[in-house]
## 1
Amino acid sequence: MAKLFRIKRWLVRVLVAVLLPVLSLADDCGREFRGKCSCGYQMYNYQTQYVVNCTDTGFRDTLVLEHLPAQTEVLIFNGNLVDELPWNVFGALNDLANLTIVDMSNNHIREIRGKSYHHVPNVRRLILNHNNLSISRYDDEEFNHHHPRVFSNFVNLQELHLTNAFADNTSAELSADLHDIFVNSNLTKLVKLHLEQNEISQFNDKRVFCDLPALLDLHLGDNLLTELNFNLSCMPRLRFLDLERNRFEAVRPRDLALLEAVQVQPGRTTPLTVDFTYNPFVCDCGLFPLYEWLARTNVTVRNRDGLVCLRNRQAREPIRSLGMGKCRKLRTGSPADDGGHTTTTLVFVLICLSCVLVALVAGLLYVSKDRLKTLLTPVVDSVSKKVHYTTIKDEDAPEQYV
């Protein structure tokens, strides 16, 4: 029966492909769309699908989406001016069992309510790139934009695209807000997460991705990261970590150990791939851990031989071809050279500290000179009088006692 169903489905798609030029002419979506959108079968993702395309139509609300044709498989709703997604964007009664892809990029969306998406059980890919989402309870003094169950109806979601999706003034607690959403939305089938271009400098919540057990690909490119300060061990299936175009000047040994730990997890069948391309690495000994790790690791490093560092912030040099002999000596410790160097450094530091101490004492005395003069004058006068009386006594004494 299943085989017969697949054959019928294949025949339908072949028939649609043959009739596609004719079907594409009948693109009237209905009077509710006011002739601004196109509806019909077309090639999308290398296959024939029923696509509703409302790009750059100037819509200022989502009311038209309540009238999507039941056969819709792909919705493209881009380039409009929709500040907020209300409850039941696709209508309370609409049955969209065939809908698998929703692209709502570049709509200036600021807020998505917890019940905005309804009747989306089979959506596999949700794209919300280039919006102004506010998901924090702290971004606005009057309104709470944090809706933890915003993706809770996407029970079969596999790809979530949030490139440049958040407002520029996003709270530093972005990771905690995201984690809260991931926990409450139950995205257990999500395999791809895109968070590029969101000005992320760190993840305050170290377990931000730990409730995405099926995650394979994590895209964090074009952000402001300088280290891996989030938990990787809780993602046992992770196969690709995108870190290109961030702010890494070096990679800490601790972070390299995290990558190694993911690679050697028990039962792992696919190698971990990481991408450090186009980071501003600095050609000094701080880069030695990465240089050494690249030569021995089993982690797949994309563009390994093409990674470069900056010398004097200008000249680019391939990391793999750097001469790191001096850095290796400093790291391992050479008795002949390093010991003498350490002693000289300690002596120099002690001299500098002594000079600083003398300067501080001198400065303190100078600043407090008037107060010290007031305190010491009576003492000096008293001592002077005692010396004077002693001198007089010695001068008047009889000769026999001298």
## 2
Amino acid sequence: MKRKTVNIVTLGCSKNEVDSELMQSILDKENFDYSENPMEADIIIVNTCGFIEAAKEESIDTILEMSKYKTVGNCKHLILAGCLAQRYSKELMDEMPEVDAIMGTGNIKDLNGILTGLQEKKRIIQSDDVNSLYIEGVKRIVTSPTSYVRISEGCDNLCTYCIIPSLRGKHRSRKIEDIVNEVVHLSNQGVKEVILIAQNTSDYGIDLYGDYSLHLLLDKLNKIEGIEFIRLLYLYPDNIDGKLIESMKRNSKVAHYLDIPLQHASDNVLKLMNRRTTNKAIRETILNLRREIPDIVIRTTFIVGFPGETEEDFRELYSFIEEIEFDKLGVFTYSKEENTPAYSMDNQIDEDVKEDRRDKLMELQKSISERLMSRKVGKDYKVMVEELAENGLYTGRSFMDSPEIDGVIYFKSSENLEIGDIVTVKTTEYLEYDLLGELAYESGK
């Protein structure tokens, strides 16, 4: 078989980014080359997102855009992967003749077989294995000092608004030793920050070890040479316990940063969402975190306009945010997704009401963020260099900021720094979501 060139376009969340890296790494190198340029690719894979309506629209637009390379480029075959492909495999194949193959979220392991099958000019659907295990032992190809590491797959929470369990399967943790081996490999490639992700990272290990085991994983990862930061995303508040907090305190590489998607603060709405927590329990968790780890940075997300959310529920959420003062916060309007319990709930909210509620919360958070950022001026932070802008101006991130979703620190340096360098920056000014500064030893300190 003549060697073919493959290009992968990645949409959606960090989990898809990991999947794309896995696909690139398991590609049969004897028969396929990888290219970053879709124009020269014989085969284009679109790794889609299908979580909410906006993501679905972006995926469809991208599929249509990539299909044009069948006319203006070398593309002979277009493959869809990811959540949209899993969710609507038959519909996409029936309605989009541009598509040659569908690969479900659990079928990445079948990539080379699918690629080979396409050479026989037949359309392929393989989306039958959402509960497959993570592909272990693959040497992921990374080009950044920051890398996401998926510690488990799937979810058992069954929130009424969420389609993920049917797209990604039941909760399945990876073994500690497999994750450690992967992070060692990443460190050997120059990775300095690993970001642990899952549908719910605080559930890690319960299925394998009979107990919540994220703290044990952190103990092991903290010992790996070359890794400077270990960051935790997507922890449901239910199982943030004393063992995890103590592990964060004793392991110096674990960033004092947690992404905890709370979704709401009204007990009425939390119950409708089938969230396994309450306003009181959330408050206790946050207060405990701040008491035990005084410099903890907490990021969260909320959904407004959920079916049945009253004005009173919204006012409670607004007051909660006003009182707690989250360091980082995002707000989504409820997206009505078919095949979820919330889809057919009574008291659906008008779109203009949803958007108004979202805007009010984001305006509130803007003022909170500006106030919190002002308190950081004059402090020193360990920063990883991410980008050189111009005239000696760099951007970087401290433990307080996760890539792409949070802010950055802009700082000046007379030195020539490299991407991934770790430096100490003294902050001098603040913006609404970002900080400005200069190298500590150039600041006259």
## 3
Amino acid sequence: MEQAHIFCQRRSGVLLHVTSLPSGNLGKDAYRFVDFLQQAGVTVWQMLPLGPTHSDGSPYQCLSAHAGNTRLISLEKIRQQPWCQSEELSGGKIAAQIALAYRHFTTYAADDLKNAFAKFCADESYWLDDYVLFREIRQLQHSTAWFDWPAPLRDRQEPALVEIRKQRSESLNIRRFEQFMFFSQWQALKTYANQRGVKLFGDMPIFVAHDSADVWAEPKLFTLDATGEPEKVAGVPPDYFSETGQRWGNPLYHWQTHIDSNFDWWQRRLQTQLKLFDLIRIDHFRGFESCWEIPASCETAIEGQWAKAPGEQLFNALLERFDELPLVAEDLGIITDEVNALREKFAMPGMKILQFAFGGDATNPYLPHQHTTDSVTYTGTHDNNTTLGWYQTLDDGAKHHLHAYVGHSDEGMPWLLNRMALMSVSSLAVLPMQDVLALDGAHRMNVPGTTEDNWRWRFQWDMLPPDCAQVLRDMNALYGRLVAD
């Protein structure tokens, strides 16, 4: 099987989540960032999942696998619309501001725009109707998880849902309008980026959150009991990093039900993501071959076991629906031959992390001489320290290995590792924005296994050196990563 067309040419990318833009939304900073990438000869903008988050802010435990995070909506962009009475949108909570914008929209918008809204609601009804109902009930239930709702709502008894739809019809339409605004602003940004040669690279977690519209709407697709509680949950086994493993708590898929429907749920999920992105990373790819299945009654991952998953059947079904699968497999950690075979069969590049390369011997698979073209090389990811922060914590042996490997270069960190990523044979090389800005560990995005102070980092434009775009462009040219128009 051939790789997706995006990998037919060497490229470079920058990893920056939308929340890390100075404004944290889809407004003018997002467009300015695309302009910076274009000037730098960078043709891929990678980001994290875009879904609405729980209170911890993690984009990997979202309330929906389809919906957009309305906190990313630019109110400034809404104020610029001819139907918006901008003087009334002066600030405050974004939900209240969008509710006011909805009333302007219904009063002043032209018929063609109202028709576009109606078409959006119809086209996206396969997830939108359940999502807005889920969010409305969740608010009425004071943000408690759906499996703790009164049984008629928890179990989706039709009389209870009909009553909510009747009593809360305007609120439900406002929630549909929020999604219309998100997807409209996103598509405008995607068009702007694509016209300038920049591809958008998204992220799709393999599992979905237990407290999500997806699990509430279709519980039969997951390993749940009659009250909505999981019987088995996801995680990873004990390893070098944790004696008890990691118990993530996501419900596992009831794979036979997915097989019986020809993976319809997955087809719908990927359909949404391909509207948003040109390229998608699948987080925890190895779970499509075998996943660590933990009894829900266990507090740690120790008592789990490997359970086979129908990855080959799934990807065959997706190929029947979509022309190609522009996917990247997150294949970090201990990966078996079976997982590699699955990734290679469907021509998905894997990942190489340079921060994992040093301190051992020449057989380390993350060292550049071990890289292959069907891979994406990173200095680090959103889960790593910044490269400067990482280097500052390295022991002397790992530092010596690093400098001996590159020939004792005088180039400082993080640009020494940035250069190493760009010169790799990998078809795509991605640098976190923190490494482009040469920032230390105080600017880290996430520390796995912790819940405090993650996902909050933002850069400011004055952090960007005046010559940064030119330096990146020269390196892209030097290592054959400039893409012809």
